[in-house]
């Protein structure tokens, strides 16, 4: 599939849900993709990208940014506290604020750096043991704690369990965001972004549908 096809599918999903045209941000997830594929999407004029590892992002984006103006980079994968400073200096948004220790580290660094990326709190909607994120029952308290730390919390993020109906998880995330007065909803990937838009996604994270399959090398 191509970038323009994905964009028109997003536009159609916005219209079907009576959402404002252009209200959904497409994050092109470029992790593990060969640089020439990423470059092709940059050449097409797209500027919003997602990476899930700080090290990988630091390896390719400074150079792309020198060549392409206005890159908006989103970290969508787990963040270790010892990489938090590097992440904050590199990305415009972090979608994976998933535990108190990370929140306090981000708050301290925000003071020190005088800036902070937009933050999304990751909610483990499926309560999966192997998955990062705040449990739904703890979400309201954690959101409040982040606000008390003066962190710029823009919204919530989830990754539904692979074997479950994603829409149930999107609806749960939307409900938690709504009752906490949060506007941002980072949800929906290649296989389910239209359903996510129907349930209020403001940011969809689409990788393989734009770039093709990721071939993971050892
Ligand atoms: C890789 C990844 C995506 C993109 O997945 P696709 O199925 O390739 O669209 C979205 N969100 C997160 C958190 C990811 O790690």
UniProtKB/TrEMBL annotation:
Keyword Glycoprotein: no
Modified residues (N6-(pyridoxal phosphate)lysine): 31
A Pfam short name: Ala_racemase_N
Alanine racemase N-terminal domain boundaries: 3-214
InterPro entries membership: Ala_racemase_N, PLP-binding_barrel, PyrdxlP_homeostasis
SUPFAM superfamilies attached to this UniProt entry: PLP-binding barrel
The entry's keywords: Pyridoxal phosphate
Lineage top rank: taxon: Bacteria
Family as reported in the entry's similarity comment: Belongs to the pyridoxal phosphate-binding protein YggS/PROSC family.
Matches recorded under NCBIfam families: YggS family pyridoxal phosphate-dependent enzyme (TIGR00044)
Function noted in UniProt: Pyridoxal 5'-phosphate (PLP)-binding protein, which is involved in PLP homeostasis.
Protein name: Pyridoxal phosphate homeostasis protein
Source species of the chain: Tritonibacter scottomollicae
């Amino acid at each position: 599939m191509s970038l323009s096809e994905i964009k028109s599918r997003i536009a159609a999903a916005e219209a079907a849900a009576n959402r404002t045209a252009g209200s959904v941000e497409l994050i092109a997830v470029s992790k593990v993709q060969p640089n020439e594929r990423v470059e092709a999407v940059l050449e097409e004029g797209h500027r919003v990208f997602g990476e899930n590892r700080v090290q990988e992002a630091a390896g390719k984006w400074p150079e792309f940014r020198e060549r392409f103006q206005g890159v908006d980079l989103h970290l969508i994968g787990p963040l270790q506290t010892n990489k938090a400073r590097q992440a904050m200096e590199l990305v415009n948004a972090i979608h994976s604020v998933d535990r108190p220790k990370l929140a306090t580290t981000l708050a301290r660094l925000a003071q020190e750096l005088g800036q902070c990326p937009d933050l999304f709190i990751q909610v483990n909607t499926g309560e999966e043991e192997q998955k990062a994120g705040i449990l739904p029952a703890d979400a309201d308290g954690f959101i409040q704690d982040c606000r008390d730390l003066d962190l710029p919390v823009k919204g919530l993020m989830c990754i539904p369990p692979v074997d479950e109906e994603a829409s149930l998880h999107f609806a749960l995330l939307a409900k938690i965001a709504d009752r906490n007065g949060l506007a941002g909803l980072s949800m929906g990937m290649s296989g389910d972004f239209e359903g996510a838009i129907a349930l209020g996604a403001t940011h969809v994270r689409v990788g393989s549908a734009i770039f093709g399959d990721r071939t993971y090398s050892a």
